[in-house]
Amino acid sequence: MDQDVGRNLAAHSAVEQCGISIHNTSSMEEARKLIAQQSFNLVITDVERPGDSTAGYSLLRWVRGNHPSLPVILYPRGGGSRESRETAQKTGAFLSTDDTGELVNAVANILGVPCGDGPFIWHPNRE
């Protein structure tokens, strides 16, 4: 189970209320498979997975290598720290934030609409 279910549910709900389609995944393998098989406007991922503290960066690097124009937002706990933002930027993320409002604004900005119209892939931290 996600260690911060409330935060992820709040972000998920806020984005869905904008009318954006969300595809949830529970593993890196599932996320890569969906991204390879379908067209998405955006990827949002946590950084840490059980047993892998940098899994989100691995997904980000895979997206950069296979879908270089697909924006990726990292949404980790503590994602607002300067160090995390710098690492995310160096790795090619559009943004790293732990703030739900900033996340929703970035989604709307990336999609180029006030509330967006998806779809994007949602990859929260789950066991």
Share of helical residues: 40-55%
Which CATH-level-2 architecture?
A: 3-Layer(aba) Sandwich
CATH superfamily: Response regulator
Could you tell me the CATH topology label: Rossmann fold
Instruction: State the end-to-end distance.
Output: 5 Å
- Summed up, the domain count is 1
Mean pLDDT: 79
- What proportion of the residues form beta strands (DSSP E)? 5-15%
How many DSSP E strands?
5
Low-confidence stretches: 123-127
Under CATH at level 1, the class stands as Alpha Beta
What structural class do you assign from the helix and strand content? alpha/beta
How would you sum up this structure, described in words?
Helix content is 44%, strand content 12%. By secondary structure, it is an alpha/beta fold. It has a single domain (5-123), classed as Response regulator (Rossmann fold). β2 (43-45), α3 and β3 form a beta-alpha-beta unit. α1 packs parallel to α5 and α2 packs parallel to α3. The termini are close together.
TL;DR?
The protein has 127 residues and is α/β, with parallel strands linked by helices. The protein has a single domain, classed as Response regulator (Rossmann fold, 3-Layer(aba) Sandwich). It contains five helices and five strands, in the order H-E-H-E-H-E-H-E-H-E.
Could you name the key traits of this structure?
127 residues; alpha/beta; Rossmann fold; single chain; disordered C terminus; 5 strands
